[in-house]
User: Fold Redox-regulated ATPase YchF from candidate division WOR-3 bacterium.
Amino acid sequence: MKLGIAGLPNVGKTSLFNLLTEGKSEVAPYPFTTIQRNIGVAKISDERFSRLVEAIKPTRSTPAQIEIVDIAGLVEGASRGEGLGNQFLANIRDVDLLIHLLRSFASETISHPYTEVDPVRDYEVIRSEFLLSDLEIIERRMKKLSKLGGEERKRLEEIAELLRAGTPPPLTPELKSYGLISPKPELIVINGDEFTTPPPLNAYPISIKLEEEMAGLPEDEKRSFRREYGLDPRGPGGIIMEAIGRLDMVFFYTIKGEEARAWIIRGGTKAIDAAGMIHSDMKKGFIKAEVASVEDIITLGGFSSAQEKGKVRTEGKDYRIKDGDVLLIRFHT
Ligand SMILES: Nc1nc2c(ncn2[C@@H]2O[C@H](COP(=O)(O)OP(=O)(O)OP(=O)(O)O)[C@@H](O)[C@H]2O)c(=O)[nH]1
Ligand SMILES: [Mg+2]
Assistant:
């Protein structure tokens, strides 16, 4: 699973990327600082996992992770190659969700491509580029098929119609394979100094500058500052949780020796494939999965106590992992 950060130049995409991934990619007050995309991994701050760690006190705890992609700024005309153009759009064709970052902070020194700060207009600018770029893909494909006609062409024509009308088509596996951007799930985030009214577009309010200034403060202090400025109290970590909530993903946990670990996978994944995510040997030699709920483990203080209380059940390779499962995979080597 991959999340992509998109938006106009100079909105703070790389700054956000660095916050999420604890990275050090280049940030600067001029547009198109980012040219090559940045790829990094964000730790997911999952409240349930924190409670699990608190309850069983393992020597090592490893949170779940998700890949983040930060791309170059997009401008009006990007789909026709304006700015740094289409190649940048190509950089987000394979992400599962878009974090659409908008800017509502004003600054004399950090230029805005349309001079005035207006996040709703900026949102529309970028959305139309997505639609146009998708339309171009569909039209190219239709041209290829023009001699063939048939079912696919008819379907493509319907999709093109939707795109021309400004409506993203439903995300079918076929469209996923074309790499269309507009149907992807998205989370709108606004980077501003302070919000006295709820942000437009139902966006997630954050202040990247404040987050940078608060680095090193304890989380509860950060939360109270965020509240004071009308920001989401969860800060950057909440962006990841919101994004995950829009995707069909579930958390599961493993406790092995001294390490507790959180994992995130697509909903409906089978136990044998979850085992494969942990280690290929576990998949190869899979025997069974012992499963408990994370809440039971937290209450009872560990896997063995849960076993004694009859709270652990055995499942086979086709068991579909549920959100909040704690798994112990039995396998032969
Ligand atoms: N005042 C203020 N400045 C910010 C904020 N967030 C980022 N900046 C500054 O804005 C400038 C642009 O930030 P970047 O993170 O490089 O922005 P970007 O969207 O990645 O820009 P491109 O890669 O050029 O598209 C930098 O000077 C940041 O320090 C903010 O919340 N408030
Ligand atoms: Mg950048």
In short: Residues 13-14, 33-34 surround magnesium ion (ligand 2) (CB under 6 Å). The domain at 249-331 is CATH 3.10.20.30 (Ubiquitin-like (UB roll)). The mean pLDDT is 93. The chain is about 40% helix and 20% strand.
